[in-house]
Design a protein that fits this description.
Blueprint: H1 6-13, H2 17-24, H3 32-45, H4 51-58, E1 63-68, H5 72-77, H6 79-94, E2 98-103, H7 107-119, E3 125-128, H8 136-144, E4 148-151, E5 162-165, H9 167-180, E6 186-190, H10 196-211, E7 218-221, H11 227-240, E8 247-250, H12 253-265, E9 275-280, E10 293-296, H13 299-315, E11 323-326, E12 329-331
Helix pairs in contact: 1-2, 1-3, 6-13, 9-10, 11-12
Length: about 325
């Protein structure tokens, strides 16, 4: 039986072989009508493109990389990361791209691992899960002119492709909501300071307090966005500090849960003594008692938008990416 080639598909569809190649790579230069026609013809003829042969000719892998600066078991324990990956996978499957997922111990290894993927030509582009102050990896990718999309924000660099929510505005709105309900001592529970989203949420928190009568901010910093770190950090604060807060804004749902447990073990009640609000809206949060009030991020949508943007950049040289800001929603449940 004769193998069906791109030329066979082109002839049957009445288009050029280069058009068929662009349809296979999902180029934005090709109209949706032409794509449907070519894909229908490919299916009718039983054509399956040889990705390995194509990569040898085009020097492309049709693969994008995702590198996480944390061990795999920790990443998948946090619904934010699994939600992002789910969104990316939906798009890569639809666009016939492969996804390489690489987890590292910390952000120092993240840069080394990403550059290894690039040097070994294993990926055509990468998606970054977060950014930090003076992020060396972002600077290196810009220097190499290697395609990437950042889920987050990079204040040191303008014009880089990003998908994000407005963390300053979103946090400002939460704190304003709490202040309007007569919570007067609102603490912020944050992970490491070097993360840009932590800095942005702290800015929104401080801005709302300043506009509401110059209230004094106080932030509890913990080593990482882990339940155990939050539990110990909040419990230590309750035990050792004289000043008592009546609400906690946690910068992540997992550490919000740690805070709730610490408050309860100290002998206080949520929300009667201390209210708690989180960030992300883990699907299981609403089933925990008391159900956590939180900011619902469109996590899966973030992954989808990042993957779509990167694949478009890979197939359209004139497209350099853009800044996409997605809306969030404040969900009030039992902890306020």
């Amino acid at each position: 039986m004769k193998n069906v080639t791109i030329k066979d598909v082109a002839k049957a569809a009445g288009v050029s072989p280069s058009t068929v190649s662009r349809v296979i790579s999902d180029s934005h230069r090709i109209s949706n009508e032409t794509k449907k026609l070519v894909r229908k013809t490919m299916k009718e003829l039983g054509y399956h493109h040889n990705a390995i042969a194509r990569s040898l000719v085009t020097q492309r892998t049709d693969t994008i990389g995702l590198v996480m600066a944390r061990p795999t078991q920790e990443a998948f324990a946090n619904p934010f990361f699994s939600g992002i990956i789910q969104g990316i996978a939906v798009v890569t499957q639809e666009k016939h791209y492969s996804l390489i997922l690489s987890s590292t111990g910390d952000y120092r290894e993240e840069q080394e691992e990403t550059m290894k993927l690039i040097r070994n030509r294993r990926v055509d582009g990468v998606i970054l899960m977060s950014s930090r102050s003076n992020d060396g990896l972002i600077n290196q990718l810009i220097q190499y002119k290697f395609p990437f999309v950042l889920i987050g924000r990079c204040p040191e660099q303008e014009g880089i492709p990003t998908v994000n929510n407005d963390n300053i505005k979103d946090t400002y709105n939460i704190v304003k909501f709490l202040l309007e309900r007569n919570y007067k001592k609102i603490a912020a529970l944050s992970g490491p300071k070097e993360y840009i989203f932590s800095q942005d949420r702290a800015l929104g928190y401080q801005k709302a307090l300043a506009e509401h009568g110059n209230l004094e901010p106080f932030v509890i910093f913990i080593n990482d966005f882990k339940y155990e770190d939050a539990y110990q950090g909040v419990l230590n604060y309750l035990v050792t500090k004289q000043e008592r807060f009546d609400a906690i804004l946690a910068f992540d749902d997992m550490i919000a849960l740690g805070a709730i447990r610490a408050i309860q073990d100290y002998g206080l009640r949520v929300p009667e003594d201390i209210a708690v609000v989180g960030f992300n809206d883990d699907p299981m949060i609403s089933y925990i008692k008391p159900a956590l009030s939180t900011v619902k991020l469109p996590i899966s949508k973030m992954g989808e938008e990042a993957a779509k943007m990167l694949i478009r950049m890979l197939n359209d040289e004139s497209y350099k990416g853009e800044e996409v800001i997605l809306a969030t929603e404040l969900i009030i449940r039992d902890t306020v």
